[in-house]
Amino acid sequence: MISGAAIAVRRLLVQLGFAVGCLFPVRSRIVLATGHDARLRGNLEAIRLAIVAQMPAAAVTSLAHPPGRGLRARVAAAFNAVRDGYELARARLFVVDDYFFPLYVVRPRRETMIVQVWHASGAFKKMGYSLADKTFGSDDALLKLVTIHSNYDLCLVSTRRVAPFYAEAFGQPLDRFTSEIGIPRADPFFDGTWRSRTASIRDRWRIPDGKRVLLYAPTFRGDRVTEAHHVDHLDLEAMREILGEDNVLLLRRHPFVRAPSPLTRTLKGFVIDATGAADIEELMFISDLLITDYSSAIFEFAILERPIAFYAPDLDEYERERGFYFDYRSGVPGPVFTDTRALARWVRDGPFDVDRIRRFRDETYDVRDGRAASRFVDRVVRSALPPVA
After folding, report:
1. Among 125, 134, 100, which residue's Cα sits nearest to residue 114?
2. Mind spelling out the 3-state secondary structure of 174-209?
3. Same domain as 128, residue 112
């Protein structure tokens, strides 16, 4: 539970930085900001690279603050609050990929455009205001003091079909959402550039030739991001017993999970802990099959037209805690399991319904040409910045 006093202090620090920034003119600067990671990833990193390629003279600032707990994290958060407010006041274009507190406690300057690109495709787990009746989400103390997800001028969605869900979650009108640009983080999946990298990625992870690669990427548990933890529902020993001869399993815990979960010696050679060591996109490129519970990685992985299995023994509990924008049991693009051995046998024997995967992909993306990041620069970045004399 976040105290009202802590929220008020953080708000004041943001407003202080913003007030100082307002003493100066807005610069022709692009700010890419995330409040859930130590560096830019996904959409923000794809956009940054596109700006560097298409507008090398453009001024870009990156703000990346992972969530944390303890005294050191609180001190860092105080400093970041002031800096974020200052950068917001002076940016011409401010782009975020998640909930970003500083945006919601000031009134942005008229010259500043604010864009929410979100960090996932589709609409899967509920978020924002859609969590009003769930234990996960914003505290009442926060909602009384802060209008979350406010001040967006433009929001990206992967398909117009999910725009109403995002509009509900953000409390924003539908006309602020567009699916015409596409999703930058999905570009490599659509343009095929990932194919040239698979051999080097497999070599980096020392995956033997002939071994099928299984990616296990569960989401985190916990009512708050700062309380995120990993739950070992899947019996990895049983998976090894049934699949170990012909497969390797890449274990990718959610980035919010900080505490390690050591693997037993008997799993060596079958399970590779890939948590925190690479972007999940790279792991998806070399994986032949994805196992998850509630991760939005399913949307990108479906582009590859490879099987997806869902292991969800705590589904009823998760629905009460977080919930979904569609019926989980019938809406996910693969079979749902609650028993490890049944899952392992399906992974070994199938059947795999690739047509179901393709339908899910086609329903998720309105634009599938691999040029979303480039289009974002052309349509959003160039229009936000004043023309060069």
Report:
1. 100
2. HHHEECCCCCHHHHHHHHCHHHHHHHHHHHHCCCCC
3. yes
- How many residues in total does the chain contain? 389
89: tokens are 């006041």
Say if CB 313 and CB 320 are below 8 A apart: no
Interatomic CA distance for residues 108 and 85, integer angstroms: 10
Helix (H, G, I), strand (E, B) or coil at 320: helix
Q: Give the structural domain span for 51.
A: 4-183+369-384
pLDDT tens per residue, range 176-207: 999 999 999 999 999 988 888 899 999 999 99
At 155 the three-state DSSP class reads: strand
Task: Answer yes or no: do 360 and 373 share one domain.
Answer: no
Rounded-to-integer distance, Cα 202 and Cα 180, Å: 34
Asked if residues 251 and 227 have their Cβ atoms less than 8 Å apart, the reply is no
> Does the global pTM surpass 0.90?
yes
CA distance 383 to 389: 15
Q: Are residue 128 and residue 28 in the same domain, yes or no? A: yes
pLDDT tens digits, 5-28 = 889 999 999 999 999 999 999 999
CA distances from 242 to 178, 210, 239, 273, 287 (A): 45, 17, 5, 19, 18
Torsion of CA 120, 124, 307, 243, to 10 degrees: 100
Structure tokens at 389: 């004399």
The verdict on 355 and 375 lying in the same domain is no
- Within a 10 A sphere around the Cβ of 159, how many other Cβ atoms? 18
| CATH number, domain with residue 279 | 3.40.50.12580
How far apart are the C-alpha atoms of 190 and 195, rounded to whole Å?
11
Residue 354 · residue 305 · CB < 8 Å:
yes
Answer yes or no: do 57 and 144 share one domain: yes
Given a contact cutoff of 8 angstroms between Cβ atoms, the answer to whether 336 and 315 are in contact is yes
Shared-domain flag, residues 254 and 134: no
Number of other CB atoms surrounding residue 83 within 10 Å? 18
Per-residue burial over 330-347, b = 16 or more CB atoms within 10 Å of its CB, e = otherwise: eebbbbbbeebeebbebb
Residue 351, preceding peptide bond in cis (omega within 30° of 0)? yes
Whether 156 and 18 map to the same domain: the answer is: yes
